[in-house]
Write a structure and sequence with these properties.
There is one protein chain. By secondary structure, this protein is an all-alpha fold. It has one domain (14-83). It contains three helices and no strands. The chain is elongated, with a radius of gyration of 20 Å.
Length: 84
C-alpha cells in the first residue's frame, strides 16, 4: 500500500505524490541493498569458518570486498538515478 491509498487528497498534488513515490522507491532500494549485503556477509563468514590455512584466509578475505563493493556501487547508482 502507498500513502496515496490512505490519503486521497494527495492526488491533487502531483509534486507531493512524486516525492512520496520517490521516498517509497528509496526505501525499497535500501531494503534490497541491505538484504543483499547481509546475504553476502553471511556467505563470507561461512567461508571464513571453513578456513584451514592462513593462505586460505588471506584469499577469502582479499576476495571478500569485491562483491560488497559491487552491491554498494549498484545501490549508489540506483539512488542517484532516483534523485534525478
Amino acid at each position: 500500500m502507498t500513502l496515496r491509498d490512505y490519503s486521497p487528497s494527495w492526488t491533487d498534488n502531483s509534486l507531493g505524490l512524486k516525492a512520496v513515490e520517490a521516498a517509497e522507491q528509496l526505501g525499497a532500494l535500501q531494503l534490497n541493498a541491505t538484504k543483499a549485503l547481509l546475504e553476502q556477509s553471511v556467505k563470507q563468514h561461512q567461508a571464513l569458518l571453513g578456513v584451514k590455512t592462513p593462505q586460505e584466509f588471506g584469499a577469502i578475505a582479499n576476495d571478500a570486498s569485491k562483491p560488497l563493493a559491487q552491491i554498494t556501487q549498484n545501490y549508489l547508482t540506483e539512488a542517484t538515478a532516483l534523485a534525478l
